[in-house]
Write a structure and sequence with these properties.
This protein is α/β, with parallel strands linked by helices. The protein has helices at residues 7-18, 25-45, 62-76, 93-101, 112-116, 137-145, 184-188, 190-193, 217-223, 250-262, 274-280, 309-319, 330-337, 357-364, 372-383, 418-431, 436-455, 462-479, and strands at residues 2-4, 53-58, 80-85, 105-108, 121-125, 150-153, 175-179, 195-199, 212-214, 238-242, 266-270, 285-287, 298-301, 325-327, 351-353, 386-389, 395-397, 403-405. The protein has two domains: 2-213, 3-Layer(aba) Sandwich (Rossmann fold); 217-479, UDP-N-acetylmuramoyl-L-alanine:D-glutamate ligase. 41% of the residues lie in helices and 15% in strands. Strand 13, helix 12 and strand 14 form a beta-alpha-beta unit. The structure holds ligand NAX and potassium ion. Belongs to the NnrE/AIBP family. K(+) binds at residues 63, 124, 157.
Length: 480
C-alpha cells in the first residue's frame, strides 16, 4: 500500500532527519530530483534541454529555495533560467546565491510577465507545505499568465496540502515533484497535481505509520478472491442483493450483474425485479422477498428499494441476519431518517455505508465540506461503519481510523447507475470474507478502473461499466 502522511507528520519527520543531516543536504537532494524532472519535462515538451528557457516562480519559503537550487542545477545542463521573485527581501538567500553563481537571472514580479510568456517550462516554487489558502493576488496574476507546462515543487501552490481543497486561485501543474513522502494533496487533488513524482530524500525511516493509504494493484490482486481447487459455488461466499423494484428494475440488474462479474461465487437476488434480473443474468438465483432468499454470507441493500415502510422492513430484516452488509442509496436515506433500524444490527457485524455528498448530508446533518477525509472519519465513528464517501477521489474510512483514498481514472463514473455497480462490487468482496475497509477500498479502485476501460475516452454507461469489470481485474492482475 502506498502511504500518505499529513504535513504535520512530514514536518516532524523532517525535523528529526534535519537534526542528523549536514546543513542544506536535504534541500540539495530535493532540488537535484526536481531539476531532473524539469529536464524531463523540457525534453518531452520542448524537444531538448540545453538552450531551453525555464522560469522559476519563487515565494518566500523553502519551497522557493528548492526551485532556486534546482535552477542552479538546470544551468549546468545549459538551460536559460530566470527566477521571478515574489518577495525579494525574503527570498531563500543560499538558493538565490547559488542560482546567481551558476549564471541564472533573478527579476522582480513586475518584470515577470515578459519572461513567463517566453518560457518553455515554469517551475512553481511559490509555496509548499507550510502555506494555507489560495494564492495571493500577485502570485495569482503571474500564475494566470502561464501557458507553458508547469512543474510544481512539492505541491501546486494555492491547493491545500492536507485537504486538497482548491477553492481559490491556484496553480494547475503538469507534473508535481514531491519529496520524502506523498502528502494528502497528492491523493486528493489529482487534477491540480498532474503526474506526481516522488523523490527520495531519506525521510521514510523517520515517518512511522501512514495517515492515509492508497491501494496499489498488488494490494488488490493479493486480496481479490479467485477460486482454488477445493472451492465450489458456496465456499467462495454467496452475496445477496436486495435492490430495485418492479417499476425501476435497473438498479437490481446493475448491482446483481456487478456482483456476478466480480467474483466466482454465487449471487442471490431478492426483490420485485426478480424476473428482469433472472432474464438478464441466468446464473442468479432470484426470489421475490428477502425472507425466502436463502443463506448468504453478505447482503447488498438499498439501490431502488424505496424509502417507505417496505424498504425499511427489508433493511431491518437484512441488518438482523448477522452477516456483513453494504447499505447504499435508499438504505442510506432510511438510516438517516430512522436510525433506529440500526438497532437490528449486531454491533460486531460489519456495515459499509456508501454515501455521495447529498446522502452524507442526510446522515450527518452537514455537507462533507473541503476536508473529505475528516468528514468520512466522523461518519465512520458515528455509525461504527466503514464509510465510503463518493466523489472524484473516493475516500474510505474505517471506524478504527484507517483511511484509503482512491486514485481516479478520469471522471467516467459520473453516469446514472454507476453507484449500483460499486455496491455490487463491495457486496461480493464482503461475501468472500474480506476486511470491510479493504473490500470497500478495493471495490472503489476496480470500479474507477472499469470506468476508464469501458470509456476509452468516450462516455460510457453503467452497463458498460459492468461489462468492463473482468478487463479491470485482468489489468490489475497483470500489472501487480
Ligand atoms: N524542511 C525540510 O527538510 C525540507 C523542505 N523542503 C521544502 O520546503 C517546503 C516548506 O518550506 P517552508 O516551511 O519554508 O514553507 P513554504 O515554502 O511552504 O512557504 C511558507 C511561506 O510562504 C508564505 N505564505 C504562507 N501562505 C501563503 C500564501 N497563501 N501565499 C503566499 N505566501 C504564503 C509565508 O510567509 C511562509 O513564510 C516544502 O514544501 C519543500 O518544498 C524540501 O527542501 C525538502 C526538505
Ligand atoms: K509549490
Amino acid at each position: 500500500m502506498q502511504g500518505i502522511w499529513t504535513t504535520a507528520r512530514i514536518r516532524a519527520a523532517e525535523d528529526r532527519l534535519l537534526a542528523v543531516t549536514p546543513d542544506g543536504e536535504l534541500m540539495r537532494r530535493a532540488a537535484f530530483g526536481l531539476a531532473t524532472q524539469v529536464s524531463a519535462v523540457l525534453a518531452e515538451g520542448a524537444g531538448g534541454v540545453s538552450g531551453r528557457r525555464a522560469v522559476l516562480l519563487v515565494g518566500s519559503g523553502n519551497n522557493g529555495g528548492d526551485a532556486l537550487w534546482a535552477g542552479a542545477f538546470l544551468r549546468r545542463r545549459g538551460v536559460a533560467v530566470t527566477a521571478v521573485l515574489l518577495d525579494p527581501a525574503k527570498t531563500h538567500a543560499a538558493g538565490l546565491a547559488a542560482l546567481r553563481r551558476s549564471g541564472g537571472r533573478a527579476v522582480s514580479s513586475v518584470d515577470g510577465p515578459q519572461w513567463i510568456s517566453r518560457a518553455d517550462v515554469v517551475v512553481d516554487g511559490i509555496v509548499g507545505i507550510s502555506a494555507r489558502g489560495p494564492l495571493r493576488p500577485e502570485a495569482a496574476r503571474l500564475a494566470g499568465l502561464v501557458e507553458a507546462p508547469v512543474v510544481a515543487v512539492d505541491l501546486p501552490s494555492g491547493v491545500d496540502p492536507d485537504t486538497g481543497a482548491a477553492d481559490g486561485p491556484h496553480v494547475t501543474a503538469t507534473r508535481t515533484v514531491t519529496f520524502g513522502a506523498l502528502k494528502p494533496v497528492h491523493a486528493l487533488a489529482p487534477q491540480e497535481c498532474g503526474e506526481v513524482v516522488l523523490v527520495d530524500i531519506g525521510l521514510r525511516p523517520s515517518l512511522g505509520e501512514p495517515d492515509l493509504y492508497r491501494l496499489e494493484p498488488a494490494d488488490i490482486a493479493a486480496v481479490w478472491p479467485v477460486p482454488g481447487p477445493g472451492d465450489d459455488k458456496y465456499s467462495q461466499g454467496v452475496v445477496g442483493i436486495a435492490a430495485g423494484s418492479a417499476t425501476y428494475p435497473g438498479a437490481a440488474v446493475l448491482a446483481s450483474g456487478s456482483a456476478v462479474q466480480a467474483t466466482a461465487g454465487m449471487v442471490r437476488y431478492a426483490g420485485h425485479a426478480a424476473d428482469v434480473v433472472r432474464a438478464r443474468w441466468p446464473e442468479i438465483v432470484a426470489t421475490g422477498s428477502v425472507t425466502d432468499a436463502g443463506r448468504v454470507q453478505a447482503w447488498v441493500v438499498g439501490p431502488g428499494i424505496g424509502t417507505g415502510a417496505e424498504g425499511r422492513e427489508v433493511l431491518r430484516h437484512i441488518l438482523g441476519q448477522d452477516v456483513p452488509v453494504c447499505a447504499d442509496a435508499d438504505a442510506t436515506t432510511i438510516i438517516a431518517h430512522t436510525p433506529e433500524v440500526l438497532d437490528a444490527r449486531d454491533p460486531d457485524t460489519p456495515l459499509v455505508l456508501t454515501p455521495h455528498a447529498g446522502e452524507y448530508e442526510r446522515l450527518m446533518g452537514r455537507r462533507p465540506g473541503v476536508d473529505r477525509v475528516a468528514a468520512a472519519r466522523e461518519a465512520a465513528a458515528k455509525y461504527d461503519a466503514v464509510v465510503l464517501l463518493k466523489g472524484h477521489c473516493t475516500v474510505v474510512a474505517a471506524p478504527d481510523g484507517r483511511v484509503a483514498v482512491n486514485q481516479p481514472h478520469g471522471s467516467w463514473l459520473a453516469t446514472a447507475g454507476s453507484g449500483d455497480v460499486l455496491t455490487g462490487l463491495v457486496g461480493s468482496l464482503l461475501a468472500a470474507g474480506l476486511d470491510p475497509w479493504l473490500a470497500a477500498a478495493a471495490a472503489a479502485q476496480v470500479h474507477s478502473l472499469a470506468g476508464a476501460l469501458a470509456a476509452e475516452d468516450v462516455p460510457t454507461s453503467a452497463s458498460g461499466l459492468v461489462a468492463a469489470i473482468p478487463a479491470a481485474l485482468r489489468l490489475i492482475r497483470a500489472v501487480a
